[in-house]
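Structure ticket #2291
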Amino acid sequence: MHATVGSNLVERARAIAPLIADEADEIERARRLTAPVVSALIENGLYRALLPQSLGGTEAAPEAFMQMLEEIAKADASTAWCLGQNSVCAMIAASLDHDTAQEIFNTAPGILAWGAIAHEARIVEGGYRVTARWDFASGSRQASWLGAHVRIVGADGVPRKNVDGAPEVRTILFPAARATLHDVWQAIGLAGTGTDSYEVADLFIPERFTAFRDVPSALREKGPLYRIGTGSTFSLGFAAVSLGVARATLDAAIALSRAKHQSLAASAMRDNQAVQGLIGRTEGDLRAARAYLYATANAMWRDLGASGEFSAAHRSAVRLAATWTIHQSAKVVDTAYHMAGATAVFRSNPFERRFRDMHAIAQQIQARDTHYEDVGKMILSGDR
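Resolution: structure written out below.
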């Protein structure tokens, strides 16, 4: 049996997890990944997990990418979130010409971040000009390049259309040094992600530093990974982060229950049948969520390898599994937090931050309840 492509990334993630755990308090305080953590991620090639092999990346299978993020998330959710964001952003390399991708990803540190789709870029000779500000750029503080997804308009301000009549949207890429970053990420959780805003003024973007994102016909790399696209890969990655946070929080509750005596009783928590039952049920919930997510990802990956097609049914299945997994992970964290009692509210204990991080994850686009409506609509149409 062949090893999963990228399995060595999981081993490397485990190896540096203690360093990340040691740096977690400073990451939270500074609201940035620390230099030792960024260096360890770079030196171990983790930012290059989804970069094409033709550029020296791993081009890892989804399973390996997800396991890598799980291991990092057990140590610190902010680090795992940034790593997931930056890794998926690197998938745009598959739609760039080789020399452009080399310049971006093989000039140290070779890290790309971007935010939400917004605004316009105006067509000019040789490329585009843009003045805009974007939000939610997780991982931007360690990035050497930034990107943005913009609608394209002509010199007359009229939007350019695709052949299907939809507005043309391109991803533009530019050195981070050309942008002004705004320190706006004052959030209850994922505090260390530096999910800040960034702004450019009258910036010229040469044509070669633009690409169509998640458009199969625009791919220059033919590996199956890039047919999945960034949207579904984000979903799988961030669901894996939620599993890592849930695993670490439940493990902390188990460790506490083994050692702690209840305030009005002489017996240890571990001897309380209610605690035993709660831990058993919660363990089952977490294992079920993880099994469902990985089974969905692996089935999709097998089908994709055989057919070369990432279908609407695959996209729907990934969306459902990722959304449900994030919600189940939040329930596990809530249970572990409440089980810990007053112990959980102190910053010196491993519950309070993970509780906040998990609920920040659950507020992101990958966990929206409307995803269930989209999947339900597809099921009822008979297209699943």
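Closing remark: The mean pLDDT is 94.
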